[in-house]
Amino acid sequence: MDITGLGISIVEELINRGLIENIADIYKLTLEDIAILKKNGKKFAQNLINAIERSKSNDLAKLINALGIKHLGTKTSKILAKKYKNMDAIFNASYEELSMIEDIGPVIASSIYNFFEQEQTKDLIEKLKQSGVNMNYKGEEADERFYGKTFVLTGTLQNHTRDEATEIIEKYGGKTSGSVSKKTSYVLAGQEAGSKLAKAEELGIQVLTEQEFDEMIN
Known about the structure:
Elements: H1 8-16, H2 31-35, H3 42-55, H4 60-66, H5 74-84, H6 87-91, H7 95-99, H8 105-117, H9 119-130, E1 150-154, H10 162-171, E2 175-177, E3 186-189, H11 195-203, E4 206-208, H12 210-217
Parallel strand pairs: 1-2, 1-3, 3-4
Helix pairs in contact: 4-5
C-alpha cells in the first residue's frame, strides 16, 4: 500500500506491543500508539499517520495486490480491478468466470476464488471499508511499456533488490524468468553476473546495466 515508514521492524514492534493483530488494525493506529515506538517519536508518528491516511485513497488494483493473494502480482491485480471496478463485484465472481479472463487461467482463478470465499477475508475487507479504504477502480491508465517483454535478472543489483526489480518489471506489464532463452528480451546484469550473462551474449540477447534499466523506468 506504499505506506512510507511502515517497515518490517515497525510492524513487528506494533504486533509485539499488541497494537495490531491484522492488516485492518493499521488503520486504527493513533499518534500516541506510534510515538512510543521511538525516542522523541512524535515527528515519525505524524509522518506515519499521514502515510497511512494517504494509502486509503489508493486505487483498487493496489489494494488487491497488497492483500497477498497467492499467484497474484501487479499485472493480474490491475486486470481484476479494471474488469470488476469494485471489491464487491470481485467477491461475487464465480470460479468459472474468473478462469475465462485472459492472462488469469484456472490456477490463478482458483487462488482468487478461494481467497475471497474465506470468512476471514470477508471480515478483513469489511473492516478496511469501515476505515475508509478505497474499494473502487479509479480508471488509471496502465503504463505497459514492458508488455510482451521477458527479463532475466543476474548478479547483484545496487539500487534494487531482486524482488523490487521484479515488481517494477511486472508493474509495467513485463515478466521475469529464471533462465535465458531465445525468448528472453533483456538480461538485467548486476555485479558478479555469471553464466546467465554468458548465455545472453552467446544468444545475442540485449544486456542491460542497472543504470540503463533505471533510465528505462524513469
